[in-house]
């Protein structure tokens, strides 16, 4: 009977119940009906235990660092840097949008932060240059998907926490697919620019002007180098790297660039705290959900079902990619990773697929769901940015 918590959870999602409450209510109801009061107590105890983790502290720190950099005007410098190198191309502002997303990804690791920060600036600018509002919002949403792929990445931290993987290994593995997604979007923009005669954003900058734009963006662009370099060199852990990122963001915003005032810090801390609370509560609920997944023997049943389809690893990976793409359309990447990771991960590692390879497949595929209807979160953020513009 306990296995029915998955269909019940999907029913709760379809009727509009928030994911956090669905993750707790679905297994809780079935444990109560099954007479497992002791396991029911364990379920809700794990809500706190799931959040009480030192590695997870990296998530609020990275969110705070991204919020500080956004409020400190660092986003403008990244856009100016991108325009200096890409603005003279046909469809230049669309290229600037994608390149800015790739650079901003190395600062925040959040697709929502990327869409909010860049969308409020670039969507109105693209509209003024003659792009349709729909295209401007669409390219902003699509490029923001790069945010959680290029390190630092919140969902990779969650995956590493749940599955016992190395955060540094996942960060390093995320670089190549993140860059490939950005390059792919730029190639698509080039094809569309030639076909639909997109406007040129600006004149071609001289190398001196490009050097000046690079100097303005030097300190922001140094952030991912410090974070990833420090982790890979063993100087600090990912959680400590996140704290270093906050200190670095504060230092350059307050004292070097002087684009942030002390009076703005309470609002910055409040916004980052609210966002972090939502994410951590979701992680705690999902860890409780994971407890019932183990009790129901769902991973073993899922493994038996998957292996009954075919024993070809490549074909199974293709089918799982389709499954993850469909899941990402209805469920946020964080909860999906916590729910499906313990089920699918052991199956494929047992078939010889490298655990880091499968982790990146899962993270990238579920991240695409952020920009696919009906539950694409960044689509709603892009729409709000378009409306405010």
Explain this structure to me?
Helices cover 77% and strands 0% of the residues. It has a domain at 56-277 and 378-388. The radius of gyration is 22 Å and the shape is globular. It has helices at residues 5-14, 19-33, 37-49, 58-71, 74-86, 92-108, 111-128, 133-144, 154-163, 167-196, 207-216, 218-232, 238-256, 265-295, 298-309, 313-328, 333-350, 355-368, 377-388. Helix 1 (5-14) runs antiparallel to helix 2 (19-33) and helix 6 (92-108) packs antiparallel against helix 10 (167-196). The model has no long low-confidence stretch (mean pLDDT 82). With 389 residues, it is mainly α. The protein contains 19 helices and no strands.
Reconstruct the topology from this structure.
Blueprint: H1 5-14, H2 19-33, H3 37-49, H4 58-71, H5 74-86, H6 92-108, H7 111-128, H8 133-144, H9 154-163, H10 167-196, H11 207-216, H12 218-232, H13 238-256, H14 265-295, H15 298-309, H16 313-328, H17 333-350, H18 355-368, H19 377-388
């Amino acid at each position: 009977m306990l296995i029915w918590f998955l269909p019940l959870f999907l029913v709760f999602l379809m009727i509009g119940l928030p994911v956090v409450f669905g993750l707790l209510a679905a297994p809780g109801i079935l444990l109560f009906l099954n007479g497992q009061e002791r396991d029911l107590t364990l379920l809700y105890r794990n809500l706190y235990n799931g959040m009480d983790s030192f590695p997870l502290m990296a998530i609020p720190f990275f969110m705070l660092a991204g919020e500080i950099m956004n409020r400190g005007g660092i986003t403008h410098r990244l856009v100016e840097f991108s325009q200096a190198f890409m603005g003279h191309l046909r469809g230049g502002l669309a290229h600037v949008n994608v390149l800015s997303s790739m650079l901003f990804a190395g600062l925040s690791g959040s697709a929502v932060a990327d869409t909010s920060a860049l969308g409020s600036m670039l969507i109105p600018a693209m509209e003024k240059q003659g792009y349709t509002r729909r295209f401007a919002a669409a390219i902003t949403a699509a490029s923001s998907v790069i945010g959680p792929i290029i390190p630092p990445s919140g969902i990779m931290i969650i995956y590493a926490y749940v599955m016992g993987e190395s955060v540094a290994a996942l960060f390093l593995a995320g670089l190549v697919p993140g860059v490939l997604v950005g390059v792919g979007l730029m190639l698509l923009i080039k094809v569309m620019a030639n076909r639909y005669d997109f406007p040129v954003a600006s004149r071609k900058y001289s190398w001196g002007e490009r050097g000046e734009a690079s100097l303005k963006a030097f300190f922001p662009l140094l952030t991912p180098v410090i974070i990833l370099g420090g982790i890979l060199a063993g100087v600090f852990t990912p959680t400590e790297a996140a704290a270093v990122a906050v200190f670095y963001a504060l230092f350059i915003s307050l004292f070097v660039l002087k684009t942030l005032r002390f009076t703005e810090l309470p609002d910055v801390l409040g916004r980052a705290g609210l966002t972090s609370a939502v994410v951590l509560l979701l992680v705690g609920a999902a860890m409780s959900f994971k407890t019932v997944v183990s009790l129901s023997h769902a991973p073993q049943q899922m493994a038996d079902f998957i292996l009954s389809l075919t024993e070809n690893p490549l074909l199974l990976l293709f089918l799982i990619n389709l499954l993850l793409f469909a899941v990402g359309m209805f469920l946020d990447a964080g909860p999906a990773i916590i729910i499906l990771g313990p089920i699918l991960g052991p199956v494929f590692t047992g078939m010889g697929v490298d655990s880091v390879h499968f982790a990146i497949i899962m993270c990238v595929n579920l991240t695409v769901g952020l920009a696919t209807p009906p539950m694409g979160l960044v689509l709603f953020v892009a729409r709000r940015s378009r409306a405010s513009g």
